[in-house]
Amino acid sequence: MDWDSTPTQLKESVWEFPPSHKWPANDVVGRGGDLSPETLIYAYQNGIFPMVTNDEFEDQEAMDLVWWSPQKRGVVPLDNLLTTRSMRRSAKKFEVRVDTCFEKVMRGCAAPIRDHGWITEEFVEAYVQLHKLGYAHSIEVFDENGLLAGGLYGVRFGKLFAGESMFHLLRDASKVALMALVEMMKKSEMTLLDVQWLTPHLESLGAVAIPREQYLRQLSVAVTQ
């Protein structure tokens, strides 16, 4: 399904997270559960996202499924994206497409050579299913030869886009994807671009960190519109 399609109606999640005022004083909200579409969308609606731990187990099958809500949440204000001359030049060289190769983008983000990889085969299968249902989307950047040079993917619900990961094979490709995403969000009158944690790289592009409670208030507005 494409960017503007109406997502498939889902059943209620069989899992329930505690209310935010009962969350621990760290970034972890819970452990376990599953990656069904109902669970994932319920989590995003409540400011929570899944990742697996990868520091305790070598066997991917033994990794813990952990649900996170950072106390300092990374967001990109849509009017605050910082673009360089290099990024703007690259945008003219690349071709941007949307939702034409979602799984390829995910697998680019999951490349084994990347440090701290957490995108397991289970995650790929789960988010590909979300994509088919109209909730997960990819922004793809192709070079002049029609080869995938980079991109990003995430979950859209209401006026929220929850960015999950990005990758690049050519310089500025992932940044061009982010530029395109911000423009698409503006045209769709979306309000909240979540990037999970603030990193130096994201900060250089205009991302900021806001307190968790502030994020949850903005989220509440975004997902109900």
Word description of this protein:
There is one protein chain. With 225 residues, the protein is of the alpha+beta class. It folds into 2 domains: 20-70, Alpha-Beta Plaits (2-Layer Sandwich); 73-223, Aminopeptidase (3-Layer(aba) Sandwich). The protein contains 7 helices and 10 strands. It has helices at 37-45, 85-93, 102-109, 121-132, 173-187, 200-204, 212-223, and strands at 28-31, 49-52, 65-68, 72-75, 95-98, 136-142, 148-157, 160-168, 192-196, 208-211. The strands form 2 sheets. A 7-stranded mixed β-sheet has the order 5-6-7-8-9-4-10, with helices on both faces. A hairpin with a 2-residue loop joins strand 7 (148-157) and strand 8. Helix 2 (85-93) packs across helix 5 and helix 3 packs antiparallel against helix 4 (121-132). The longest helix has 15 residues, at 173-187. The two termini are 21 Å apart. Residues 56-62 have low confidence and may be disordered.
Profile the largest sheet.
7 strands, mixed
Q: Quick one: CATH class of the largest domain?
A: Alpha Beta
Give the % helix.
Answer: 25-40%
Number of helices: 7
CATH-defined topology of the largest domain: Aminopeptidase
How confident overall, as mean pLDDT? 92
Tell me what portion of residues adopts beta-strand conformation. Answer: 15-25%
What is the CATH superfamily label of the largest domain? Leucyl/phenylalanyl-tRNA-protein transferase, C-terminal domain
Radius of gyration: 17 Å
Number of domains: 2
H-E string: EHEEEHEHHEEEHEHEH
* Annotation, overall tally of beta strands: 10
Low-pLDDT stretches are: 56-62
User: What is the overall shape?
Assistant: globular
Roughly how many Å apart are the termini? 21 Å
Query: Which architecture of the largest domain does the CATH hierarchy give at level 2?
Result: 3-Layer(aba) Sandwich
- The chain-level structural class is alpha+beta
**Biggest sheet strand line-up:** 5-6-7-8-9-4-10
